[in-house]
Amino acid sequence: MLVTGAAGRIGRAACPGLAARGWRVRGLDRAPLDGVHGLADPPVRADVRDASALDRAVSGVDAVVHLAGISGEAPFADILAANIDGTYQVFDAARRAGVRRLVFASSNHAVGFTARTRLATVDLPPRPDTYYGVSKVFGEALGRLYADRYGMQVVCLRIGSWTERPVTPRHLSTWLSPSDGIRLLHAALTAPDVDFAVVYGISANTRGWWDLAPARALGYRPVDDAEDYAAEVLAEHGEPDPAAVEHALLGGELAGPEYDAPDAPDAPDAPARPDGPDGPARPVP
User: Fold this and answer.
1) pLDDT digits (tens, 9 = 90+) for 238-266
2) Is the torsion defined by CA of 201, 204, 205, 207 positive or negative?
3) Burial of 118 by CB count in 10 Å (0-12 exposed, 13-18 middle, 19+ buried)?
4) To which H or E segment does residue 210 belong?
5) To bridge 277 with a disulfide, which of 159, 221, 223, 244 should be the other Cys (CB 3.0-4.6 Å)?
């Protein structure tokens, strides 16, 4: 199986984690793949928009985990190249090679402008909060097309906050531990009778905002709970304000005004954030 974005923070966890579960992992990234563990095949150093390199990378694999791209808000031209064109190129290379299963790293930001409810379901209409969120809506729609037209099996994971541990009050609801992240990827790769699915990806958080039933239907069994860290997090930050944008909307602060028009000449720089599910460090919650 191929992991794109293998040199990213999550890719570096996914490759050895999936290898430990019996997968023969091949990695692709435009960044150096030195130190990426778990790779059984020689790594492929290439951009995901390079169709010929992708053809080589997908040759002989039976599944693709697509993590590559910009993992936060950026000017639209950058999102268009990396997240929209790049995602299309990966899907189409998989189609040409006859790959049956593709797991796409989507995001909660595909529905980020949705007001938080007690338990958000996967059938919410798209309400992206950023150009980044738009690119995830695109990827999900493209997956639906390739499932219907070409018979590919596509699972889109709306990943929450994949971090070593929760460090903010929002993370108490959105956290996906690395070990649960591997469980989620493995379930998405092995679930039988899948044509197309969109599922949320968080741990078994007591304060979780998203319905995990569709992920559990794939065989996902999370074991971690951000509540184990709640006392420490709340002692540092205090109880969350339900009216604050990071708690009132599913997308959190990416739905806030500081992310207006990121490519406008007078727009402020977005605050630096840890890297998200699909590439090097960019601004994400």
Assistant:
1) 999 999 999 999 999 999 998 986 554 44
2) positive
3) exposed
4) none
5) 159
Which of these, 33, 162, 51, lies nearest to 25 by C-alpha position? 33
CA dist 260 and 255 (Å) reads 9
Note whether 45 and 30 are within 8 A (CB).
Answer: yes
Stretch 45-72: mean pLDDT: 96
Show the tokens assigned to 133: 């969120």
- Average pLDDT of the chain? 92
Cβ–Cβ < 8 Å for 100, 63: yes
Q: Which two tokens stand for residue 244?
A: 């604050």
Tens of pLDDT, residues 225-235: 999 999 999 99
**Whole-number Å distance between alpha carbons of 11 and 4:** 8
One-letter amino acid identity for 103?
A: V
Report, in angstroms and rounded to the nearest whole number, the Rg of the chain calculated over CA atoms. 18
Active site residues: 132
CA distance 34 to 13: 14
- For residues 8 and 168, what is the distance between their CA atoms, to the nearest angstrom? 22
Give the three-state DSSP class for 199: strand
Contact criterion met (CB below 8 Å) for 209 and 250: yes
Threshold 0.85, pTM exceeds: yes
Show the domains of the chain with their CATH numbers. 2-259 (3.40.50.720)
Other CB atoms within a 10 A radius of the CB of residue 284 amount to 26
Helix H or strand E segment including 105:
strand 101-107
